[in-house]
Fold 3-isopropylmalate dehydrogenase.
Amino acid sequence: MTKTITVLPGDGIGPEVTGSAVRVLKRVFEKNACDVQFVEKRIGGAAIDTDGTPLPRDTVEQCAASDAVLLGAVGGPKWDNQSMRVRPEQGLLGIRKALGLFANLRPVKAFAPLIGASPLKSQYVENVDFVIVRELTGGLYFGKPSERRGDHGEKVVDTLAYSVGEIERVVEKAFRLAERRKKKLTSVDKANVLESSRVWREVVNEVSHRHPEVAVSHLLVDSAAMQLIVNPGQFDVIVTENMFGDILSDEASVMTGSLGMLPSASLRKDKVGLYEPVHGSAPDIAGQGKANPLAAILSAAFLLRYSLDMDHEAGFIEKAVLQVLERGYHTADLKVAGEQTKLVNTTEMTDRVIAIL
Amino acid sequence: MTKTITVLPGDGIGPEVTGSAVRVLKRVFEKNACDVQFVEKRIGGAAIDTDGTPLPRDTVEQCAASDAVLLGAVGGPKWDNQSMRVRPEQGLLGIRKALGLFANLRPVKAFAPLIGASPLKSQYVENVDFVIVRELTGGLYFGKPSERRGDHGEKVVDTLAYSVGEIERVVEKAFRLAERRKKKLTSVDKANVLESSRVWREVVNEVSHRHPEVAVSHLLVDSAAMQLIVNPGQFDVIVTENMFGDILSDEASVMTGSLGMLPSASLRKDKVGLYEPVHGSAPDIAGQGKANPLAAILSAAFLLRYSLDMDHEAGFIEKAVLQVLERGYHTADLKVAGEQTKLVNTTEMTDRVIAIL
Ligand SMILES: CC(C)[C@H](C(=O)O)[C@@H](O)C(=O)O
Ligand SMILES: CC(C)[C@H](C(=O)O)[C@@H](O)C(=O)O
């Protein structure tokens, strides 16, 4: 049966980096004689320009009928006006919600050739290899009411809402991930203040009975923000609610020396997932061939692993990316260590990865 | 007229470090022939043990009748049981709220002799000197409803609530602080998702008209979490809502090489304020004379500056603390640079500071 991947290039460098990732995927499918079709759809600012909405209905329908979605990036100064009622980010929030992608996996791993570029001293970063599992469709970013109040709009509320079921499913995902890794789970909350965090902690403790081999600990979000810096090597899998995960995963993303290297996966219970690089749309360098395609390519590797059961091929891509760096190839955003470093553009970098595959 | 300072030693190392800070203050008042009385009251776990509540009524009354409050730290494993209905932290949240201390100032400044101990490379930390102004009595940590719902408690909500007035007063404080510093204000929010953040941003832009000489910029909280690490030197004053401030100020606190050095001030419109070290109650070293008193001593300097108009004397204390470090004196938690470093205990460290004064 033909598998379908929907590609949502989005804005800025999105089209360039998804273009690279699709080339890599095509090479893999060719080699393995897989029957996969790619369909491209609009999202974000690009969709606002053509359709007046950041998430056109046929984009949602196409994604819903696909095995996996590969996204570039959304947003840019063109659509940044505060007063605009439609904003590119709504496309991103909307597609996550529409597909029910409740678990956002954000791996943080040090690439040896890039460690020197980290703001942190090498000894803090060397052994870093953890994954943040962020709840993605609940909490403060989706709760209602979210509105102005009072006769003159002088009050405002947002709502952090969770059901036990919403917490349970993402915590379960995190436990399963920890089982396949170093069997260590850190749950982050603010249970000394928030009622929702106390429920979160209870659910984590309950789910832990089903996974006795995983060692669980709880960390307050403010302590977690410190620990990520003073001892990032202690973590294996971190699970936390939407907003805490947003903040902590971005904090963690700068540790490894380049944001341009980080993939992400947004998953649900079945195999359908959305894959996107962690970096933004970088409008300042869009269309110039300067973009680093490696995060998108690594996101494509995640797509193979989580949506198409091609763990082996995912591993090949990851190894190829590491080799390219080891050989000194880098885009402008990366500082690789080594005697002979070679600055390449988006296409050349992609060629290098494909050549190794 | 006699001024009154209420001392709330609290738990763990709280009594030791407030003891040191009071000694330093007494020295300053003696030298300047100031008429100041100290009154000690209970808070946190210590108050739970004796009064059954983390914030006895006479503590609130005494604080309310004082010119300033000096707090040690609250909490410890003894009171950490999840199922307990009274928790030490409630004392802290309660006293802030009772006194209406809406602006929490958290300075982050590199001490030259300690820079080597930072997890960040020296070049990232050298010029760091900023203040985070955290809103302290509103937002998600105080909003109602904050409760379980549903027939079986299967849902839970917390509420992030602000009024325009609550936002305005803390933003105004931050602008005034920026005016006395490098005239640069960074407001942190999540305006691409939260309604409360959009109101926050509007208020910041309005208040900025009253302070045309201050350069204002807006940063999303996830970007802020990154920027604090990749370019902390860019900041002067950061203003943000309660929870974002909680997370970001703790993230920022580990940058300078020791948490044991950081003071904080919680202020309102008049001169009354509450001053406390940023570090916790460190129950593992409590009562052993190992605690670093410098954060509490620097909090006392803040007390002089903000509550007693003794800016000059505050500056003397800050210089004395720096000199003590430069001479190589350190408590066990500090790694000072230099040929001759001398490990001292809490009392000796305090003696050193007083000797210089
Ligand atoms: C653009 C924004 C809504 C989004 C989020 O916070 O979810 C982004 O910051 C992310 O982390 O993917
Ligand atoms: C103990 C807790 C309630 C408190 C807070 O988050 O306000 C603490 O983390 C702080 O930052 O002072």
About this structure: Chain B has two domains: 1-102+261-357, 129-254. The longest helix of chain B spans residues 14-31.
